[in-house]
Task: structure prediction
Amino acid sequence: MKREKLDRLEQEVTARLAGLATERLADALVIHVGVLQLLQTMTRLRDDIAFDFKLLVDLAGVHYPERAVPFELVYQLLSVHKNHRIRVKVPVTEGELVPSIAGIWSSADWYEREAYDMFGILFSGHSDLRRILNDYDFHGYPLRKDFPVTGLVESRYDEQRGMVVKEPVRLGREDREPYRRFP
Result:
């Protein structure tokens, strides 16, 4: 986004959404919002003609285990008519309920399910908050930085039993250097 357009957007945000922290990046404006202000802020960004963010492009979770507030939700919004974008960041603590924005943008439905499935972030008011990518019996949240790279269990088909079995992951010496098995 051009500098002039970013300047105007930042002025509008400062004037119309007073009290919110902003951050200026080279190509984007970022608003930092608390969980309690999320619904009001998102509704304003969609409905206020000065912003006109009618499209939720993406919602991503991020895990920062070294921080006091270890999770962050990052919402990417687009105004097609005004041709500008904005990023909204929301810090989230472990087990904190985040209000669902699926009532504002229906596209948030599956994004929120993915954030729940991959990070364990809980959304209040979501109509169907369940796993979307992992099995229902999957334990843990695979995009957290403390989740083991190898996973917790290994699923394989056992021909003798005629079924899929799950076993704890065991790493032997040969598993650590797979490239040495092949000439």
Observations:
- The two ends are 51 Å apart (CA to CA).
